[in-house]
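Q: Structure tokens for this one, please.
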Amino acid sequence: MSDKPQVSKVEKIKESSRGLRGTLAEELVNGAPNFEADSLQLLKFHGIYQQDDRDARNRSGSGMEKAYSMMIRGRIPGGRMSAKQYLEFDKLADLYGNGGLRLTTRQSIQYHGVLKEKMKDLIKGIHESMLSTICACGDVVRNVTQAPNPLGDAELAKLDEPSNLISDHFAARSNAYVEIWLDGERVDPQSEQEDPIYGTNYLPRKFKIAVTRAGDNSVDLFTNDLALAATFEKGEITGYHYYVGGGLGKNHRNAKTYPRLASHLGWAAADKMIQVCESVIAVQKDFGDRKDRKHARLKYLLEDRGLDWFRTEVEKRTGFSLEQKPEPDWSFVDYLGWHERSDGTLSFGLHILSGRIIDKENEPVKTAIREAVETFQPEVQITPDQDLVFMGLPADSREKFEAIFEDKQLAISRKGSVYSRALACPALPTCGLALAEAERFLPDLLADIQSSLDRHGLSEKPPVIRMTGCPNGCARPYSAELAFVGRSAGIYAVYVGGNPEGTRLVQEISDTVPVDRLPGLVDEMFTLWKKEGKEGESFGDYSNRVGLEPFQALIAD
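A: Here is the predicted structure, written as tokens:
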């Protein structure tokens, strides 16, 4: 009888993949429109998910071949891009994707609708722009998020270096990416040096890292596996507060899965940063659950073993103790609209609902953004709320910049409305996990909610609203003030009670609300908020104060 611990099938696929190679190179040229099941797990490490058009699936019925395509995601540390890089990504969408870009909640860009035969050309194009797709998905450190910097703040600019360093340091070392996608020289996997951080089995599950300044929660810090909050003295980073064990995914039918906000692990000096990060990741690698992938995120290790145990294990590896300094107070820092930067230039934070940059009839969003970038050559930063900040615009450019959008009848100012912080995941028709609509339904729902806010005189304090098509939490619903999570076709779980700062989880009031009941239910909840809320009290704070019963009664009636 073997003493080897039981592991999931995915663990076996990783272990036998020959450094993430598997049979990807062979399948890429076999003429089929899709990859085999085992290869789908390895594709993730290269930044790729295989999808199919579920609308087409429903139209064609059973027995018809699925309309396969790939979603390919960039690795863009902190969401920072030069004008040249952004324009290259824009062009690649037309050449090899569905013509659109999707900004993600982790400050990256996704391409949808990429056919198998076009994958290599797209990835080569990304590589030529000095970016990549490596480790944008998979059981590794994903894209590193970073606080947006619309003002050109000197301290926030200091975060570029640690974000880049973390991204580079924790990228997988396998030569497979270069061999398969960039036609690089092939290396014998048997002679290739084992990845010094990930080994041959990588991490038990995905690992998300955020970097910010202490007090700035524009990155939704508490939803990450590991978050670093920099402290400063005389403009220099003195060290970081470390937060561990955040994560939002859950399963409707599995009570052992749940969202969790990250816990404060401690503080360490700036020169210890990589050492602490390596140690945190090593503990997760050594002790994380490799048998049950639904229980494999770092948050479950924290819950099962406890924060003190985890800290002890980290300190065994670092060789020093983390300091227990007071935690900072947190707030969300708004970056939408016009801002004057420290160097006299301007920035503009453009709200993009659900991060979808594509030209539609009478809505040429992609064309307008491309024209603005071509005209002014700004640096851009994708934000954790799927928006785009144009930075370094000339001081006299405001009128001309706005005219680019106004000439195309595009509204560019949603600052202060319910739209400004609303998020939705793609859901149907491309996501294979979606149980209900999200991105396609959100605009109509938000229009109803904005009307309700206006009617009740509450439009000055719109709640943070997020919607997902399944409980996996990609659009961070559980750290919103009001959230709708797909339960089944046309049915949603409704959550209330988070806060605008993102430091408190929502609570479920019902998981069986029909989609056509949502606008009326929200209006009734706002009626209570208007009547009973304290002056200046946000919807999340109000609902957290009064509890679930008043809202559950609305559903029972």
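A few notes: The mean pLDDT is 96. The first helix runs from residue 9 to 15.
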